Amino acid sequence: MAGEDKKQQPFDSKAASSLVAELRGAFASGTTRSYQWRESQLRGLLRMTDEHEQDITAALRSDLGKPELESVLYEAAMLRNSCKFALKELQRWMMPEKVKTSLTTFPSSAEIVSEPLGVVLIISAWNYPYCMRHFSFFIFPVSFASFTILFVVPTFFLHYLSVLSLDPVVGAIAAGNAVVLKPSEIAPATSALLAKLLGEYMDSSSIRVVEGAVPETTALLEQKWDKIFYTGNGRVGQIVMAAAAKHLTPVVLELGGKSPVVVDSGINLQIACRRIIVGKWGNNNGQACIASDYIITTKDLAPKLVDVLKNELETFYGKNPLESKDLSRIVNSNHFTRLTKLLDEDKVSKKVVYGGERDPTKLQIAPTILLDVPRDSLIMNEEIFGPLLPILTVDKLEESFDIIKSGAKPLAAYIFTNDKKLKEHFVNNVSAGGLVVNDTTVHLAVHTLPFGGVGESGIGAYHGKFSFDAFSHKKAVVYRSFMGDAAIRYPPYTNGKLRLMKALLGGSILGILRALFGRS
Amino acid sequence: MNAALEFDLGKHPVEAYRDEIGGLIKSANYALGCLKGWMSARKAKLPLAAALTTAEIIPEPLGLVLIISSWNFPFGLSLEPLIGALAAGNVVVLKPSEVAPRCSSLLANVLPAYLDPKAIKVVEGGPAVSEQLVKQKWDKILFTGSARVGRIVMAAAANHLTPVTLEFGGKCPAVLDSLSSSWDREVAVQRIVGSKFSACAGQACIAIDYVVVEKKFSSTLLELMKVRIGKMLGENPRESRSMARIVNKHHFLRLKTLLEDPNVKASIVYGGSMDEKSLFIEPTILLDPPLESDLMQDEIFGPLLPIITLKKIEDSINFINSRPKPLAIYAFTHNDSLRKRMVAETSSGSVTFNDAMIQYMADTLPFGGIGESGMGNYHGKFSFDTFSHHKAVMRRSFLVDFWFRFPPWNDHKLQLFRSMYLFDYLGVLLTVLGLRKSKQG
């Protein structure tokens, strides 16, 4: 299995090249194209998740200190849902899409066929090593006996973003490709578990895991792939795209950014704060690509907002959050140092209004709120990806849009408001991968929404059918009859032919009829 | 526009209309008719009618886009992408090819009179200018040209994480199966020969590069082709002025060199004469030139048409698959199983049966390549989409939330979630009412 091989010999360029050659052979044999194969692999993933949920949870706890509920819900359950959705829709997705043909190409019929790209490389990040999104939204009425209870359960979805290794794999398999998965080395227990489990449950002639760090990833990136799907940060994203350019390999890059939350007055602050908290600290302790990065609110509202946040944080995580079992830890000491540096910068350290405690032995940082940090501080100039939440204040909330626009387009942007005009202004003017009004991160869970960035937050999108499409080539197929305009399109050119051609391109029925009856 | 095309490429006005101007008029009208629909948000279904939640996908412009076009269809390849970029609401810089200089300067001079000059700019120049342009940060680049330069463009785009659509070409094969009806044979030959020689003299990304036919039909095919070429272009194709010339000396010499290989020269069965002064090469057919020759390794991009013979027409599938994926595959056949195999077992930007190049004019089909023939696509709504960001937007209400969505976590909440994900509503209810213990102690 891949994990064991790694210990024996280094995975270098030669190994990568023969891996790709092997998978190309497997793909060329046609195995991965059949509905049966795709279905069996997706069911394999489902079984794997069901039978090894405990192992997965244990690995995530070992790597990230992730609370069990986050693992089960966000990772395992999310992956299950993705698989189930793909299984349900697969036949429909695989069918060619008939398209209307116009008089210009009459008589003809045409369709768009989705074909697998071939051999694809998926490189995942570490914050959600097992799955990527997850969601469930439902409202269900339950009636019994003499009363009706309406439960509205907007469950939330999960935090997915970035990490997830297996969610893109679902799309790649559904689209009929052979897959190499390179899980993140920063979550080693999960990476090893994935290598072992995928080796057991999946068809290893076409699906492989390569573990390792920079040397292995570099060796992989040197090869020619039919698609590369990368989740991680922008800097490495550039490296991936540059490597892809050598082989003209199309890419999907799921990156990050500073996802802002604009908070207006005149709303239910308690609900807003709960949603902000669970989307931030309840999501791998802020280490998630769509976690709220910073808040923008008015100077008037800021003090109250801070109070409510403090209250809710205490309710969720207690008076000693460093002791709370419900918070993931910081993934490793590099990131711990990075985050403490952000906190300890001179112009920022005095702005802490809540939290700030850290425990280097446990690699834990408590939920921390900062108020009025300067715009040119470190914390406001890189994606935080941790449990620190700065609040910027403005006089009028409309100014927040300028602040957001002055930075790189983020992966997500959020607003809490009941003001209709402000909502529409936000939706129509703020550019980000995805927007949510009056909540955070939930869009992750919706299969029917494309999940991806724009500008520096990414290229391409996935989830649901968008995953299938991301790993497919949309091939145009035209069926023409031998009847038709054979003569008029070609020399010798005459004015008569030109007239007919204009009629054809202009879609005139009369012109077409006349064309049909001529040959030379 | 006709005059510029005539000057730069020797195109006949009817050819210009058929391949560029008419197509642009069609596409612009199509975009105008569809624009409102394209611009409107699309509702996204939510899994279980979350009554107080809505989800939609809103298209928004990417921002500032760069369009670099090629010289063979200088108006078509500049303005077809421009239609999409404008429909999607972007600001555009267009860099037409300097290899078609009259067309390039026409665009630079005339576009500002018809389009908003603050939002659409034409920058003229050669490779040095293109190099400077691609170094900048764009929100999208659409490039039409060679795969070699395409790699450079994508590498430059990578520095800014700029998404790209790259349109190349490839060796587009035409597979000619046995056709029993003579009408069909005539039409097939007309379409093959017509599309190859009358569209920019074979200098087109979707031109038929070579024909594949069963050995036993090759002589019939050759005779039909000779007759058809004669009918189309007369005794002296150059005098007919119905066939474009080679764009410049560099490409003329490139094509001349392809034919200088003695084994290739020996396989010429029709045509072959070239006039360097007028940059004209007459329609040339070759029969089974050596497969390792440059002629059969590189994209020809000129009026040279090799006929490759195989024992069985089904062998064409392996033949095609052993070469880089082309932008288009053409197959003239009534054989349904061959058709199915073509579609299922080969990979290309597109497959067209019983005709050639016409897929370019279809507004409802994506036009783009795969592998060495390109990435991304455009035309029709695909143009709009390629220049848009499809933004996911979700709106939630404050009225609905469920208490166990939030920490602190406990087994009770976990149990509730387990039930919910299994859509076990009764289980949820029982757990809530305390009538069911959590699965884990």
TrEMBL record, chain A:
Keywords: Membrane, Oxidoreductase, Transmembrane, Transmembrane helix. Gene3D superfamilies: Aldehyde Dehydrogenase, Chain A, domain 1, Aldehyde Dehydrogenase, Chain A, domain 2. GO terms for molecular function: oxidoreductase activity, acting on the aldehyde or oxo group of donors, NAD or NADP as acceptor. PROSITE patterns: ALDEHYDE_DEHYDR_GLU. The chain crosses the membrane at residues 137-161. Pfam families: Aldedh (PF00171). Residues 14-132, 166-477 form the Aldehyde dehydrogenase domain. PANTHER family: ALDEHYDE DEHYDROGENASE, ALDEHYDE DEHYDROGENASE TYPE III, ISOFORM Q. This is Aldehyde dehydrogenase.
Automatic annotation (TrEMBL), chain B:
One of its GO terms (molecular function) is aldehyde dehydrogenase (NAD+) activity. The active site is at E167, C205. Keywords: NAD, Oxidoreductase. GO terms for biological process: response to abscisic acid; response to water deprivation. InterPro entries: Ald_DH/histidinol_DH, Ald_DH_C, Ald_DH_N, Aldehyde_DH_dom, Aldehyde_DH_NAD(P). It catalyses: an aldehyde + NAD(+) + H2O = a carboxylate + NADH + 2 H(+). The keyword Cytoplasm does not apply. It comes from the Eukaryota. Residues 8-393 form the Aldehyde dehydrogenase domain. The keyword Oxidoreductase applies. Signal peptide: none annotated. Belongs to the aldehyde dehydrogenase family. This is Aldehyde dehydrogenase. It comes from Eucalyptus globulus.
